[in-house]
Amino acid sequence: MSETTASGVRGISAASAFAGMRNVAPVRFRAGCPDCRGAFELAASALRLAIGASSRTTFYSFTCPDCGAAVRKPAGERIVELLTGGGVRTLRLHAP
Ligand SMILES: [Zn+2]
Hints:
Blueprint: H1 3-7, H2 14-17, E1 28-32, E2 39-43, E3 47-51, E4 59-63, E5 70-74, H3 77-85, E6 89-92
Parallel strand pairs: 3-6
Antiparallel strand pairs: 1-2, 3-4, 4-5
The chain binds zinc ion.
The site of zinc ion has 8 residues, from loops.
């Protein structure tokens, strides 16, 4: 019964709707709030990534949907890759 789901998902006509755009999927990122300790999933548009000159000044930020706190967390290379690949708005803090 589940035979078709394994290979039949690809090639949906919706792909043509995204022609011209990069592969933008509705990615969601898991995040946690240190203030209220809430755990939730955020859309790419809810996150911001700031890339500094070093990994110490590279972080991502979001507003907690539960308590409204502004959360800022350090972002390592993998997270940066993940976020930029997921379409998160990126701000470069240093001149290239
Ligand atoms: Zn919170």
